[in-house]
């Protein structure tokens, strides 16, 4: 995609003071791309050796592809960024839940269980105590889904995912989820009829409809970032961590990179927001962010002989006999991620940095998962070909009630003039690919407006 | 789980058209802003000229619908293949539909020419194979001076064969090169043209300069303020004509364009057309891989579906929401 800036659109900015963007992931690259289109000078600083952040895929010599973060994007995002011609349509995507040895498709299959159906219906009929419902994630799920479904499925998954008790989590976890039942039903039906994995619950910023489905770029999600980066020649500085953001009188003035101070007109950070208090000098207003927690996660990518070892692309395992809460057999949706006679199952295990799981060696982790996979894939041992482990200390934001008020305040503004925190880690929000793009676009418009003033 | 075959990259495309197009990002042609929301995503369902997918966006400021990103100018020859329909909408190829369209269009055209003198000079910008000029030649006053402009060699060739005077090129270049004289024309037509051009404001400003003070331009273009747009806008709407219709208007955005180009709006109405209905259904069927015999029931050849949807669109026209906009803009005196 080439940019086509006309003279009339050119906005005058002080070129000596660029906007500094921290992090060359999808959010940072999108922000840089759109600022550039508005003729705003930008410099994008990336601490690592490569761009793309969480949107990275690895390929091994045996023909397997491992996605680090998201597995796919939507055809709408692909078209918006001009990479549609390089994407494959994902034809199918499904989720199931394993309970007492039986699998139920998610979400409607769970209603086959009479107690879930009765509890769900009761929750719809009973008057809602809004204050109680909004007091915690536990109460929110009970009030929304019924006590049985919440206690047996939703809350155990939420706790494994976040590493915190559901009663300590804020109700906004629930509020950020899902479409209405009617919409979910129509999107699932559209998926079945069209033979495409219609996106359902993936895009909150822009409406979902049967014409928006999942696609996978050739070679992995990094292609999307590369496309944006191609337009940013000379603006990306790799291996250049921003060491300090200097604030004076409540306004960003400069940054320090490799020991050198550089004046900036604004800073857009995509770094995990809880490190901002350490990074920002000259103000204490960001101090509350240091309490925000991210959930570390270990992803064990297990290679197996055969295909179709799981009943569906994703299998949720809410019962606590399993150390993992989610298994994903990506080749069921994206056959090209593994050789045709082999498959890949990603095992998601929540943990804490430095704990036993975090420190476990790769092969031991593989064996540990194999043991627990036996009830699901009985011949997993015979099929096992090895594994590759990816670890991240910042997989998901944890919405604890103890800092909910600060989180909501942060959602509105960083409190420092000229400092913006965007993207999944920057906004401290579980935002998926397409939402990152459109939200960033919206924020960039606001930033340009502020700079012009 | 059934083992799935690996799908190909991108959208299906015709033989030899596997290479992606070069795409450019643009701002709204009315507001010069990039404040958009996505409306629809689709592909070239009709001609399969590339594996690209395209996004239709709505400008939040003015409501214009436009394709963004869109093909670069150097790829025009790829997205308008030799078999493109506007290059030769012939009686032989389209039979009965041609005859009906000819009669209807002749009536409409002549109603636009009311009040023109014997020596009126008329230009059709984006005339294709000269279909409308030919009607004016056949049914209008013999003394009218008729000229056309089109960038396609093939269209110019087809029009010239009919004995029409057609200038080859784009209107801005032809004015710059003094091929077309300024302030000389009484009436200009832009029928199904403005949605194809890269910069509607620039083209309309040039057309304005060709008109005598008080002269008029008739713009006919797809209307996005319609039921067919609402129903099919997320992917299959015929009016998108991906990737060839770059800017799509409604009465409000046509007014905004007129204002930007210093034209006065004389009349602004809608016109009946079955084409977007028929092509919206056709695109849906093509996308869902319906059998060919069914797809062929919905085309410019299919008298039955064109007839049915003409009647259907008449109802909408009655409510002021016909499939096409017809705007008469005047160069102020």
UniProtKB/TrEMBL annotation, chain A:
Annotated Amine oxidase domain residues: 26-405
Gene3D superfamilies the UniProt entry points to: FAD/NAD(P)-binding domain
Entry-linked Pfam families: Amino_oxidase
GO molecular function: oxidoreductase activity
Domain of life, per lineage: Bacteria
Protein name as annotated: FAD-dependent oxidoreductase
Source organism (scientific name): Drouetiella hepatica Uher 2000/2452
UniProtKB/TrEMBL annotation, chain B:
Organism lineage: Bacteria, Bacillati, Cyanobacteriota, Cyanophyceae, Oculatellales
GO biological process: methylation
Domain of life: Bacteria
UniProt key word Glycoprotein: no
Transmembrane segments: none
One Pfam family here: Methyltransf_23
Name of the featured protein: Class I SAM-dependent methyltransferase
Keyword Transferase carried by entry: yes
InterPro entries: SAM-dependent_MTases_sf
GO molecular function: methyltransferase activity
Protein keywords: Methyltransferase, Transferase
Species for this entry: Drouetiella hepatica Uher 2000/2452
């Amino acid at each position: 995609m080439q940019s086509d800036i006309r003279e009339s659109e050119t906005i005058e900015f002080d070129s000596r003071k660029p906007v500094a963007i921290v992090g060359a992931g999808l959010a940072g690259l999108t922000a840089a791309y759109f600022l550039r289109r508005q003729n705003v000078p930008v410099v994008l600083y990336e601490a690592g050796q490569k761009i793309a952040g969480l949107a990275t895929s690895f390929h091994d010599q045996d023909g397997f592809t491992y996605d680090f973060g998201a597995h796919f994007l939507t055809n709408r995002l692909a078209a918006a960024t001009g990479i549609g011609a390089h994407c494959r349509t994902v034809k199918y995507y499904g989720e199931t839940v394993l309970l007492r040895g039986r699998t139920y498709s998610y979400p409607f299959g769970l209603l086959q269980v009479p107690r879930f159906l009765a509890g769900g219906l009761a929750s719809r009929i009973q008057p809602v105590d809004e204050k109680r419902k909004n007091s915690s994630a536990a109460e929110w799920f009970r009030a929304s889904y019924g006590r049985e479904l919440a206690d047996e499925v939703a809350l155990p998954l939420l706790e494994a995912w976040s590493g915190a008790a559901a009663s300590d989590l804020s109700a906004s976890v629930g509020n950020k989820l899902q479409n209405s039942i009617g919409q979910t039903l129509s999107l699932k039906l559209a998926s079945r009829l069209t033979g495409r994995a219609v996106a359902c619950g993936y895009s909150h910023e822009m409406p979902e409809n049967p014409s928006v489905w999942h696609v996978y770029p050739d070679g992995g999600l990094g292609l999307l970032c590369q496309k944006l980066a191609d337009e940013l020649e000379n603006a990306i500085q790799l291996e250049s961590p921003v060491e300090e953001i200097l604030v004076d009188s409540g306004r960003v003035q400069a940054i320090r990179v490799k020991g050198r101070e550089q004046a900036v007109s604004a800073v857009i950070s995509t770094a995990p927001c809880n490190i901002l208090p350490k990074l920002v000098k000259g103000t204490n207003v960001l101090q509350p962010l240091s309490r925000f927690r991210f959930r570390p996660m270990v992803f064990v990518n297990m290679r197996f002989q055969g295909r179709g070892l799981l009943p569906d692309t994703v299998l949720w395992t809410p019962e606590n006999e399993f150390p993992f809460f989610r298994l994903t057999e990506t080749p069921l949706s994206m056959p090209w991620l593994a050789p045709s006679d082999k498959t890949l199952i990603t095992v998601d295990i929540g943990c804490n940095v430095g704990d036993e799981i975090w420190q476990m060696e790769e092969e031991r982790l593989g064996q540990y998962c194999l043991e627990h996979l036996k009830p699901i894939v009985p011949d997993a041992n015979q099929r096992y070909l090895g594994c590759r482990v990816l670890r991240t200390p910042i997989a998901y934001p944890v919405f604890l009630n103890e800092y909910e008020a600060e989180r909501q305040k942060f959602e509105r503004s960083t409190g420092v003039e000229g400092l913006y925190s965007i993207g999944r880690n920057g906004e401290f929000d579980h935002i998926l690919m397409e939402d990152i793009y459109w939200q960033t676009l919206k924020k960039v418009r606001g930033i340009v407006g502020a700079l012009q003033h | 789980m059934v083992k799935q075959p690996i799908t190909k990259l991108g959208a299906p495309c015709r033989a030899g058209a596997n290479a992606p197009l070069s795409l450019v990002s643009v701002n709204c042609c009315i507001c010069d802003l990039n404040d958009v929301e996505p409306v629809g995503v689709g592909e070239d369902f009709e001609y399969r000229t590339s594996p690209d997918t395209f996004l239709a966006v709505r400008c939040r400021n003015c409501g214009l619908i436009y394709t963004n990103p869109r093909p670069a100018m150097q790829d025009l020859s790829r997205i308008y293949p030799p078999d493109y329909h506007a290059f030769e909408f012939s009686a032989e190829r389209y039979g009965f539909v041609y005859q009906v369209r000819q009669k209807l269009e002749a009536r409409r055209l002549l109603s636009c020419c009311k009040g023109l003198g014997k020596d009126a000079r008329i230009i059709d910008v984006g005339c294709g194979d000269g279909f409308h000029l030919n009607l004016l030649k056949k049914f209008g006053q013999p003394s009218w001076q008729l000229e056309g402009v089109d960038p396609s060699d093939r269209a110019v060739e087809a029009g010239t064969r009919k004995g029409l005077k057609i200038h080859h090129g784009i209107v801005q270049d032809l004015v710059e090169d003094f091929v077309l004289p300024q302030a000389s024309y009484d009436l200009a037509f832009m029928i199904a043209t403005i949605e194809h051009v890269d910069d509607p404001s620039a083209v309309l400003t040039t057309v304005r300069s060709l008109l005598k003070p008080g002269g008029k331009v008739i713009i006919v273009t797809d209307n996005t303020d319609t039921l067919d747009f609402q129903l099919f806008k997320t992917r299959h709407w015929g009016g998108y004509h991906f990737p060839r219709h770059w800017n799509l208007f409604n009465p409000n955005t046509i007014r905004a364009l007129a204002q930007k180009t210093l034209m006065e709006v004389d009349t602004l109405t809608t016109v009946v057309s079955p084409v977007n209905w028929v092509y919206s259904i056709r695109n849906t069927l093509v996308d869902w891989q319906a059998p060919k015999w069914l797809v062929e029931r919905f085309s410019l050849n299919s008298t039955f579906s064109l007839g049915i949807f003409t009647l259907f669109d008449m109802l909408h026209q009655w409510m002021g929401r016909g499939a096409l906009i017809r705007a008469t803009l005047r160069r102020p005196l």
